[in-house]
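Example record for the data management plan.
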Amino acid sequence: MSRELLPLIRVDSKLRAREAAERIRARTEIPPDAVRRAESIVLGVRERGDAALLSYSKELDGVELSEGGLAVGKDEVERAAERVDPGLLGAMRFSLARIRRTQGRLLGRLPFAYVANGYVVRCVVHPLESVGCYVPGGRASYASTVLMTAGVAKLAGVKRVVVCTPPGKDGRVSEAILAAAKISGVDEVYRVGGAQSIAALAYGTESIAKVSKIVGPGGAYVSAAKRAVSSDVPIEFVAGPTEMVVVADSKADPRLVAWDLMGQAEHGGDSICGVVTWDKKLAEKVRETVATVSTTLERRDFVRGCLSRGFAAVCKDRDVAIELVNAIAPEHLELMIEDAGKVARSVENAGLVLAGPYAPAAASDYSIGTDHVLPTGGGARLRAGLTALDFVKVGWVVEGSRQGLKALLPSLRELATAEGLPNHFLSAESRFRKE
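Corresponding structural encoding:
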């Protein structure tokens, strides 16, 4: 007998919403054995460098690579960009342009200056020296992730942008990924994936120089490896298996809800997808549609595996539904409700909020212009998705005047004295004494 898809749960209070969220969140925790294995791989790469990368590629990915064969040559990248289907190349350029337009507007707001009481305060922005971008492979080829990591890093002015991605069994990297690397301006591409590539980016090997920061989504082992190295090399956040919650009311089209859940569910059985509603009939129609349509799909095993771990939550009312959403803190949140724009403002915890039926997660994954690298595992309680700000250092430059500093002395004296640091005040006051 097949497993039940989108098991029904009832949530009748805000307290029950928080409890339900904890149970749902427990399904997304990285298994302890994956954590231990990832940490072991990281240690192996730190100790043995390229030799460990070659060994793990053979053991874990079934790929035999030769010494000196980890790097993808510039000529191979160039040929891939020439061979890839023109329609696909055009779609990638279109997507990259929209991403850069969105992120460029954000960057453009940062450099500013203001004058206040004798001081000029300037906000300055400097790009990071180097960034490593992990691009998943295996079950699918994520050329779009190159655009949304490396493409944004280059927009921000990062000098050295590196892509690591698992090759196929023949040792070759997807031509679509290489073409995306070409148009994004990537400096180096390496045919290595998994936890071992994260270790290489963090600590360096004979072939791969270490980077200043690591970004990009991945499965359990990649996520565990990012956590393991994060005390030594900054990461953006953990972006693990995809998560999708759709909030729908009685006027939502259950067919669209079902399709959007199935669309995200094809990432694999380790993803989490669910619908939240206060209309039981809507929930039942979504479940019926999913049960019927999912059997006809390509990648049906991935879809059904994911949705058997998912949920259909019927809440007491809309307030309880929003409480549940905020407690789950999903990666993607779709609002298929009548006043989606207004309700979006009451959502505090979501990696990306998509309001209304014409903003599906699938469109945001590729072409809207927002980034699809988003926090998972409850990370949306602390921040939203990847932005150009992840690739720069933001700082301040202050220029003062004599009269500006003189005006600060009374408050400076009070604060420094209260904290038992009188010499702080005296160092500033010395500019007005003749000694």
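Summary line stored alongside the record: Residues 8-28+241-369 form a domain with the Rossmann fold fold (CATH 3.40.50.1980).
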